[in-house]
Design a protein that fits this description.
The protein has 286 residues and is of the alpha+beta class. It is 34% helix and 28% strand. It contains nine helices and eleven strands. The strands form two sheets. Strands 1, 2, 3, 4, 5, 6 and 8 form a seven-stranded mixed beta sheet that branches. A four-stranded antiparallel beta sheet has the order 9-10-7-11. A hairpin with a 5-residue loop joins strand 1 and strand 2. The radius of gyration is 19 Å and the shape is globular.
Length: 286
């Protein structure tokens, strides 16, 4: 039975702007996305004779089509008509769940890439990304990865120059944040500030890491409930005190990340934060 293993890279939002609510119930977004080396392991085994099965090292995750990895496999078979004689998907989860780092979407993207390879690459990378849009809004980006501008629901992608070499410290607080609640809060207020997306793109084109860091911004940070906002700001303060060029929240949170041009300083921030927050990671851009 053919077996293939894929990495499912976490993603960060270097910037995130909500432009407005759409008639289909989604929101138009403008985001600059970056994949990082924190990853889940995804193993695909075909020819199992038992449909689509999912197993994970986290017992609370679903093992049916409610898991985005299984949903991605089903979409792939519907789209391509490929016959694999059943597929077993094993997820070795390291990206925290409900963290704003696209763990589920990245797993789904890895399944799409892996099944495409196992069936003779019937789809181009862009066709895979388009198919991913039917699974989840972040899946198209996670299929392609790298540094990119994402618009629409997140499925309209424009590749950008690669972020200069750097180190990230990621810190996820213990609480979770409701994505629908945050979107409702954004809809109800006039945002006080927005990311300088054009300036961030220009900084990427110039290879200006400090310029990128100065322009990192997430509008959801402005509408967090007070208790969660205090924790996010406390983590940001620690990152900046250790020399982060900039610090922001990823997605709808609660993960906070700092961007460093000095690995030793990043390690100092990581060591301090991991004393209080279990889910703290030292990672790099992919």
């Amino acid at each position: 039975m053919p077996i293939l293993e894929e990495k499912a890279w976490a993603k960060l939002n270097l910037s995130l702007d909500v432009l407005g609510r759409r008639s289909d119930g989604y929101h138009d977004l403008r985001m600059i996305m970056q994949s990082v080396s924190l990853s889940d392991g995804v193993k695909l085994e075909t020819g199992t004779g038992e449909g689509v099965r999912v197993a994970t090292n986290l017992s609370f995750l679903p093992n049916n089509e409610k898991n985005l990895a299984a949903a991605a496999a089903l979409r792939f078979f519907e789209r391509t008509g490929a016959e694999c004689g059943g597929v077993s998907i094993t997820l070795d989860k390291h990206i925290p769940v409900c963290a704003g780092m696209g763990g589920g979407s990245s797993d789904a993207a890895a399944v799409l890439r892996g099944l495409n390879a196992l069936t003779g690459t019937p789809l181009t990378p862009m066709e895979l990304a388009e198919l991913g849009g039917a699974v989840g809004s972040d899946v198209p980006y996670c299929v392609l990865g790298g540094t990119a501008l994402a618009e629409g629901r997140g499925e309209v992608l424009t590749p950008l120059p690669t972020l200069p070499p750097c180190t990230f410290v990621l810190c996820k607080p213990t609480f979770s944040i409701s994505t629908p609640q945050l979107f409702a809060l954004v809809d109800a207020v006039k945002l006080r500030a927005r990311p300088d997306t054009a300036g961030l793109v220009a900084a990427l084109k110039a290879g200006d890491l400090a310029g990128v860091a100065r322009r990192m911004y997430n509008v959801f940070g402005d509408v967090l409930p007070e208790r969660q906002r205090r924790t996010v700001e406390e983590i940001r303060a620690v990152l900046l005190s250790h020399g982060a060029l900039g610090a922001s929240m990823s997605g709808t949170g609660p993960t906070v990340f700092g961007l460093f041009d000095d690995e030793a300083r990043a390690r100092g921030a990581w060591e301090e934060l991991k004393e209080s927050f279990r889910d703290t990671f030292l990672t790099s851009r992919v």
